[in-house]
Amino acid sequence: MKTINIVILVVIAAAIAIFAGAYADSSTYADFATAKKNIGQEYHIVGTLNKEKPMVYEPMKNANRFEFYLLDSLGNEAKVIYSEPKPADFDRSNKVVVIGKFDTPEGDFIAKKILLKCPSKYEAENPAK
Amino acid sequence: MEVLYKGENLLIGNIGHFLVALAFCTAIFSAVSYFFSANNNDDKNWKKVGRISFWIHAAAVTGVFITLFIIIYGHYFEYQYAWQHSSRSLPWYYMLSCFWEGQEGSFLLWLIWDAVIGILLIYTVKSWESPVLAIVCLTQIVLASMLLGIDVGDIYKIGSSPFSLLREKMADNAPIFRTPEYLNQITDGRGLNPLLQNYWMVIHPPTLFFGFASSIIPFAFAISGLWTGKYKEWLKPALPWTLVSVMILGTGIIMGGFWAYESLSFGGYWAWDPVENASLVPWLLLIAALHLMLIYKSTGTSIILTYILSIAAFLLVLYATFLTRSGILGDSSVHSFTDLGLSGQLMIFMFVFYALPLFAIVKDKFQKMWLNLIYWGVFLLNIAAGIVTKNETIFIVLKWVDIAMFVAITFAFVYKLYQTFPASRTEENFKSRELWMFIGSLFLLLSAFQVILVTSFPVINKLFGTNIAPPTDAIGYYNKFQMPIAIVLGILTAISQYFKYKTTDVKKMSINLLKTFAASILLSVGCMYLFQIRDAYYLVFLLAGVYTIVANTAYITDILKGKMKVAGGSLAHIGFGLMLVGILVSSAKKEVISINETVDFGQSMDDKATRENMLLLKGDTIRMSDYLVTYTKDTIIGPSTFYNVYYKGIGNTDEFTLQPNAQISNGQLNANPDTRHYLTHDVYTFVSNVPDKSKQNSEPWSAPEKHQVLIGDTITTINGKVVFESIDKNAKPQELNLNHQMWGANLKIIDGKRIFTAKPIFAIADKSFYTIEDVVDEAGLKFNFYIKAGEAGVAAFIETSARPPVRDFIIMKAIIFPYINLLWGGVIVMIIGFIIAIIKRTKDYKRTFAIPDKTE
Q1: CA atoms of B690 and B614, how far apart (whole Å)
Q2: Among partner residues A64, A86, A103, which is closest to B612 by beta-carbon distance?
Q3: Which of B177, B529, B604, B680 could pair with B167 as two cysteines, CB 3.0-4.6 Å apart?
Q4: Which of A14, A83, A122 is nearest residue B610 as measured by Cβ atoms?
Q5: Touching check for A20 and chain B: CB below 8 Å?
Q6: Hey, is the C-beta of B460 within 8 angstroms of any chain A C-beta?
Q7: Contact B332, B324 (CB under 8 A)
């Protein structure tokens, strides 16, 4: 067998390993119920903010704690705790992706990262304002 | 009812529309002419027509750019692009940034660079002009079509014109356009995103887009090689261009990183965001292609992979464009993308260019016929289905047909390549440079593969109905795969040059390699102590980087005898080594120093990573690592508030003030960091949250409480203790010109470590009395002072009301990036290396024309 073929085989094997590894390590989009069933497992949860419930951010007490209630795509609600300051455009966002997990079945959802989707520019207020 | 609008300047928009159409048509004309020229043995007449059309095309594209600039510069807000992306207060250089805030402008930028590249190619590539320009024109046709904005019936719109009127784009939902004088009401545009109002944002996008645009060159040459049957001659003219492309794309990417570091507040220069990844992957492929071209040039081997990579780099640029412009990344990126309805067109773009290599390589007439039949059949089927039906099942079937076709095209092309270039029978030699370079290129491919695979998750989800989300910890995830690859690449970069092409004197080489390796180990041990790295894995990484630097430096001094003219490659590799070390140290030893130690930690608060933000009250001093940090004041300049954060070193004389700033509008906060640069480290600071001052004073005062007091008494309130220190019997404020007697109560407020004073006043006027209250906002207290004569003599009363104190504060994050200058320095060294290499390769190429070119 030629050297080059061995090299190519090794590289293909590495590529397959990467493929498998990438898949194994990836997260999935889920809802709160799934996340609650798999304690400690991290998920992406796409949801909307429950604006009727309080959003708590009290920097004087703790600058690194922000709490809010999120409704997932199935309409289930969970309290989310985020250990960073409240993102500034949070109030305006209509869609929120939280990335994190439940530590206990009764506990709150611990978000590690939050992605905000703000209303697209094209839907913004009309120029007359 | 038709409304006649007043005050609109329609002429300039019509000129713009016309120029776009002209650019589109001349691109078609030029492509066709060059095509016939290439197919008819470089026919002189066709070529001439092609060349003239291309000049007109380039002029038209420039005209489009100027027209759009005039619209923005002249504040013609009747045009949607100007209204949406600019405002009156914008300085002219940021008006350039308006171009790349919108998608149309980005395509326009690409179009311009391709036109410039086309003109340069016309006058430098000699006999390759016709086929290469034909392919360049093909991209121009597609790019120009993105700007057309022509309605095809009611169903589809081709392109999105930057010259659309505001009222056309907004027609459905804005009553304002019912008045003919609507323009009077639009006094200003919506302005440019403040994040783009940064000098890096003026130069970063054009650089990056030149890199993207120039990836057409290796692609066009490779296709031309297959098309004309001059399979190998294209490498020489393509080589210097590929170097240019790699250099500029790399510069553009790192400028983006520097911009992010200097003006975005995610705390770093690279976040593995899909947008960054999309520009990184073509770059990795171009580097791999470049190395393979060098191998081919010197040994005549690995031609097949050279073809594949030269072609794939451009296809990945297209794919990256599709990813970032189609809105498909929606949930996975922090960048918000809007789909302008161009995704269909982008898909056609990819569809056409993906098949181009196969069309070029198939020579047999019979095969060609079948290829045409099947390919265009599927193509038309897709278009027809898109127009006629909304049936889901048909789309699903069609999707699988398309996927099958993509796979078939790929296999057919690779098969034809093997047929055209039979594999050589000779055994590759472990002692040859080409083998090691080849392996290095494969590792670059692996790196690119991993990045694009993960970035493509949303596409995979859409195609196969899966539900894969990107990794939750992007940086850790990518590092896991990319670090070992980077280590291998570092080592290969160190050793490969010591091998000679074909075969090497192993003894001599081993001595050199061992010498440099020994030196690297010594140096790494030194670095280990300097950088304080203990982790074994990181040390291996460090060694790989140091080895790259040492081995390539030694190569320049010992083997090349210091001749810098030929040292471009080695120098670029030294830059790469410096970058590896810089990336390692600045990220592995990056330290968040604003760790909050003062809060009451709940259970979930144990982790250091969950308290990285520090609350700094104005005037308070808090220790962060080796600094005492004070928030001293805030200043409002234009739309931004600058927060002065004063740092004083503990145990040294180091002191400085950083001014991170933030723009607060509509509840949105755009924070820009400020960084103190030292040779050995950076202190990076930004505000992650600030109080909204407009909302703070709205809290009501509590009901007043009256306390009878004697001098020296202490009153306890919910906001701290108040000491009644003395009475000032002459407390009349100077500005009050009244003949009233005023007594003031000297009060001291103690709130933890903070001390305030207050002086409420009791005034006697003739036969009545009144009080002048004193409010201390920062303590959240309001005081009134009364004196009453009663049976037991004169008594003093203090009346207090409380509300939440208004405390001016910032919440900030501070990070130390050690030795980040190694990264920036490495980039500069790498760029210099590229420039030297470009000069050398261009000379090499020109030398071949010292002997008159027979084909010209």
Answers
A1: 11
A2: A64
A3: B177
A4: A83
A5: no
A6: no
A7: no
Interface with chain A: mutation pick from B170, B688, B692, highest number of A CBs within 10 Å? B688
Q: Does any CB of chain A come closer than 8 Å to the CB of residue B330?
A: yes
* Chain A residues near residue B611 by CB distance under 8 angstroms: 64, 83
Range 599-658 of B in CB contact (< 8 A) with A: 599-600, 604-605, 607, 609-615
Q: Indicate the DSSP class of residue B758.
A: E
Rg, Å, chain A Cα set: 21
What span, in angstroms and rounded, lies between the C-alpha atoms of B603 and B461? 37
Counting beta carbons within 10 angstroms of the beta carbon of residue A55, is it exposed (0 to 12), middle (13 to 18) or buried (19 or more)?
A: middle
Task: From chain B, pick out residues whose CB is under 8 angstroms from the CB of A123.
Answer: none
C-alpha B839: how far from chain center: 29
Structural tokens at position A128 = 């007359």
Distance from B431 to chain A by nearest Cα, in Å?
12
CA atoms of B260 and B673, how far apart (whole Å): 10
User: Which segments of B437-483 are extended strands (E)?
Assistant: 468-469
A71 touches chain B (CB under 8 A): no
Minimal-distance CA residue of chain B relative to A86: B689
Chain center to CA of B611: 28
Q: What is the DSSP string of B518-580?
A: HHHHHHHHHHHHHHT---HHHHHHHHHHHHHHHHHHHIIIIISTT-GGG-HHHHHHHHHHHHH
B669: which chain A residues are within 8 Å (Cβ-Cβ)? 88-89
* B610 within 8 A of B604, measured Cβ to Cβ: yes
B199-221 pLDDT, tens digit each: 788 899 999 999 999 999 999 99
Residue whose C-alpha is closest to residue B236's, from B325, B143, B126, B345: B126
Residue spans of the domains in chain B: they are 1-197, 218-427, 477-589, 607-691+809-818, 699-802
B81 touching A (Cβ < 8 Å): no
B388 has pLDDT over 50: yes
Q: Are B593 and B816 in contact (CB under 8 A)?
A: yes
Say whether A121 and B604 touch across the interface (CB within 8 A).
no
Residue pointed to by tokens 């600094």:
B627
Spatial separation of the C-alpha atoms in residues B170 and B77, rounded to whole Å? 13
Question: Residue type at B743?
Answer: W
Burial class (CB within 10 angstroms; exposed 0-12, middle 13-18, buried 19+) of B59: middle
Q: How many CB atoms lie within 10 A of CB B600?
A: 7
**CA triple B669-B671-B674, angle to 5 deg:** 165
- Asked whether the beta carbons of B752 and B727 are under 8 A apart, the reply is no
CB burial class (10 A; 0-12, 13-18, 19+) of residue A83? buried
The rounded distance, in Å, linking the Cα atoms of B823 and B485 is: 18
Give strand pairing partners of B715: B722
Which one, of B215, B204, B142, B457, lies nearest residue B323 by Cα?
B457
Nearest CB partner across the interface for A26, out of B470, B605, B612: B470
Domains in chain A: ranges and CATH:
28-123 (2.40.50.140)
Model confidence pLDDT, tens digit, residues B80-127: 888 888 888 888 888 888 888 888 888 999 999 999 999 999 998 888
- Please give, rounded to a whole number of angstroms, the shortest distance from the CA of A51 to a CA of chain B: 16
Question: Tokens at residue B145, please?
Answer: 């079509």
Side chain identity, residue B604: S
| Assigned token pair, B584 | 């390692």
Strands (E), B310-377: none
Question: B501 is written with which tokens?
Answer: 């092409």
pLDDT-derived band at B635, boundaries 50, 70, 90: confident
How do strand B591-592 and strand A43-49 relate by DSSP bridges? unpaired
Chain segment A59-80, per-residue pLDDT in tens:
878 888 899 999 988 888 899 9
